[in-house]
Write a structure and sequence with these properties.
By secondary structure, this protein is of the alpha+beta class. It has twelve helices and 19 strands. Bound molecules: FE2/S2 (inorganic) cluster and fe (ii) ion (FE2). The site of fe (ii) ion has 5 residues, from loops. The site of fe (ii) ion (FE2) has 5 residues, from loops.
Length: about 425
């Protein structure tokens, strides 16, 4: 439970807000690398309640600019794309992706351009994603180099979709193991009959609907463990929450990011990887996306792309997400929704654009939720005090999502640190 004031503090992402200032202290993924090709037109991007323009120059270098031109604010979405820079159509000032001002044709003094700098932000390309840092230059943290960024791109599958709600309620579904066997009941049943690696790892969850949950604070956020007695063994599924918006899924081969575009719109990015399967090559790619519900047809049909979000002819709260009540009555579908992603979207978005938390009734199943609130508010508090927030200083190589049979051991023994200690002992 959070009172109205604390809820707003946690959820508001604009530049003048406490959480907005905290969010600007991290590297955030803002597009798939494949969504921005050299030679493309400049592309409007919304991030943390502000408007930007993304573009790649002819050498393939990605850039992210404040939308308004440095000179007098005309939109750089309208800019001419030249080999080495974006040229504003109003007076022709030209900006390189690093912010260098390359030309100011309406100013006689050729040295004028050397004294000014375009509003371009630091961008990194890694793991099939483009990342930006929007905060103060002097506080720019080290770029988090995750091990999956070095995997061959054939073995890594990256997707992005948009949801019409605040980012916190998207993350909530990722530290809430007990909804899996209920909301996703149909998907879990089907997972028994397929050989997809993803499906095999989640299949047993349906056999215990009330897992025992434990959380442990870390320098990056917290670990969240769901422990289930299943037949004669005990299984643990451990997710890592890395502040402010990264989750490593217990499957051990999925990273997700719930990146706030504005207060009521969130980009949800999935990275799947596999050492053995070429996930990004057909036919595996399409089968994988279809099973999870992230295929282009599903995203388009459910209104989860920039082109379709908010359209009245797509599933949305006003039409009950086109829930199939007849299938529910026939006992064929628990949720009346077609797949895992649609179920998660309906659950998150139906709670309202910014979910109110003053009158919610949390239970023992929600310790991940209350820890999430606490950690996010700690990020805002730390930045306000002038301290680095959780999740800006940590070693990504030591953080995992994982699962396994624990039988009498602690779930902490599944973490690489524990295994390192065992090896040393
Ligand atoms: S407003 Fe862009 S060059 Fe003048
Ligand atoms: Fe879910």
């Amino acid at each position: 439970m959070l009172n109205r004031e604390a809820n707003q503090r946690m959820c508001r992402v604009g530049p003048g807000e406490a959480m907005g200032r905290a969010l600007r202290r991290y590297w955030l993924p803002f597009l798939l690398a494949s969504e921005l090709a050299a030679g493309d037109d400049p592309r409007g991007v919304e991030l943390l309640g502000e408007r930007f323009v993304a573009w790649r120059d002819a050498r393939g270098r990605p850039g992210l600019f404040a939308e308004g031109c440095l000179h007098r604010g005309a939109s750089l979405r309208l800019a001419r794309a030249e080999e080495d820079g974006l040229r504003c159509i109003y007076h022709g000032w030209k900006f390189g992706v690093d912010g260098a001002v390359l030309d100011t044709p309406n100013v006689a003094d050729p040295r004028f351009k050397e004294r000014i700098r375009g509003r371009a932000f630091p961008v990194q390309e890694a793991g099939g994603l483009l990342w930006a840092y929007l905060g103060p230059r002097e506080q720019q943290p080290e770029f988090p180099r995750w091990p999956w960024m070095d995997i061959d791109s054939d073995h890594r599958l990256v997707t992005r979709h948009v949801e019409e709600c605040n980012f916190v309620q998207v993350i909530e579904g990722l530290v809430d193991s007990s909804h899996l066997g209920l909301l996703h009941m149909n998907g879990l049943k089907q997972s028994g009959g397929t050989d997809l690696g993803f499906a095999r790892k989640v299949n047993s969850m349906q056999r215990n609907l009330a897992p025992r949950l434990e959380v442990q604070d870390t320098e990056f956020g917290f670990y969240y463990a769901a422990i289930r007695a299943i037949e004669d063994r005990t299984e643990a599924r451990v997710a890592a929450y890395i502040a402010p918006c990264t989750i490593l899924n217990p499957n051990g081969d999925i990273a997700t990011f719930a990146v706030p575009l504005g207060d009521t719109r969130t980009a949800f990015i999935h990275v799947f990887w596999s050492d053995s399967e070429p996930l990004n090559r057909e036919p595996v790619r399409t089968r994988h996306l279809e099973f999870i519900g992230l295929s282009p047809a599903v995203l388009d049909g459910f209104g989860l792309t920039e082109a379709t979000i908010g359209r009245a002819d797509r599933p949305n709260p006003a039409n009950n997400f086109l829930q199939d009540r007849a299938a529910m009555r026939r006992g064929e579908s628990w949720s009346g929704l077609p797949g895992l992603i649609e179920e998660d979207v309906a659950a998150s978005v139906s709670a309202g654009p910014v979910r109110q938390r003053a009158d919610e009734v949390l239970s023992a199943s929600d310790i991940g939720i209350s820890r999430l609130y606490r950690t996010l508010l700690a990020c805002a508090d730390a930045v306000e005090r002038g301290e680095p927030p959780p999740g800006v200083r940590f070693d990504p190589a030591t953080v995992v999502g994982t699962h396994g049979v624990i039988d009498g051991r602690s779930w902490r023994d599944l973490l690489p640190q524990a295994q390192g200690q065992e090896a040393a002992a």
